[in-house]
Amino acid sequence: MDWLNVLKAALLGILQGLTEFLPVSSTAHLLLGERLLKFADPGGTFTVMIQLGSILAVMWVYRAKIWETLLGLPTQPKARRFALMLIIAFLPALLIGFFAADYVKAVLYGSLKVIALAFILGGLAMLALERWRPTPTVAAAENTPLLRALGIGFFQTLALVPGVSRSGATILGGLALGLERRAAAEFSFFLAMPTMSAAFTHDFLDLYKTISPDRAVEIGVGFVAAFIAALIVVKPILDVVSRIGFAPFAWYRIALGACLLGAAQFGYT
């Protein structure tokens, strides 16, 4: 057992948990962190699988809502509508991800320029929407009209490109389609549950027979670290975005993207 790699896995798990629900791309931060720490992740398995830790954290935070929905499915129209809304929003990622996921991991995960450009373009889009977004008409995530939920689902597919940010894409989609900031952020949290659970299941079923015991330990440590870090930050994130908006995250993305482009220009890959 390489304990240095286990320590690296814990640090990367913390990084993942802290960034999963911020519009800054946890996947890109993980890929950059792995480069800096020289942590090998063939096929992006570690990167995808530890994200379920963050999703379980948000499921724990919203456990009352989840339980209420599950119990209400047989008899309550409100519960059935909430479940249908998430299914509709999840479908674009399910379909497009099925065909594109392998290409994304094999080609785009290794491109520093792709990550940098995604950071910058995403930041600019965020600034534009903060300034010119339509007047919000949806105050609560669970009241999102079904057609708008589908639109947000298509926005989420942009996050297949590393650096775009799954939460960032869904939040921007929510803002563009008339959700208030807090509602857009909460919708992103809810939509993360089926999306990241499906990504984890896909990778696990493909690779569980070939994962070595050492790699399994690293994934487990990263998973737990991501869970704890995400559990700490989920609620504060909602308060921050409700109060100050997304502009600070946009400027962070643009600055980091510019630094990465500069690094790529000087030959760092």
Element-level helix/strand string: HHHHHHHHHHHH
Q: In one word, what is the shape?
A: globular
- Overall mean pLDDT: 85
Domains, number: 1
How much of the polypeptide forms β-strand, as a percent range? under 5%
CA radius of gyration: 18 Å
The termini sit apart by: 29 Å
Low-pLDDT runs = none
Discrete helix count: 12
What is the percent of helical residues?
over 70%
Number of strands: 0
Q: What about the largest sheet? A: none
Report on the structure:
It is a single chain. With 269 residues, the protein is an all-alpha fold. It has one domain (3-36, 44-265). 77% of the residues lie in helices and 0% in strands. It contains twelve helices and no strands. The protein has helices spanning 3-19, 26-37, 45-49, 51-61, 63-72, 77-106, 112-132, 146-157, 166-176, 181-207, 213-244, 247-265. Helix 9 (166-176) packs antiparallel against helix 10 (181-207). The longest helix is centred in the last third of the chain and has 32 residues, at 213-244. The radius of gyration is 18 Å and the shape is globular.
Summary of the model, kept short:
The chain is mostly helical.
From the structure above, extract its key features.
12 helices, 269 residues, 77% helix, mainly alpha
Topology overview:
Blueprint: H1 3-19, H2 26-37, H3 45-49, H4 51-61, H5 63-72, H6 77-106, H7 112-132, H8 146-157, H9 166-176, H10 181-207, H11 213-244, H12 247-265
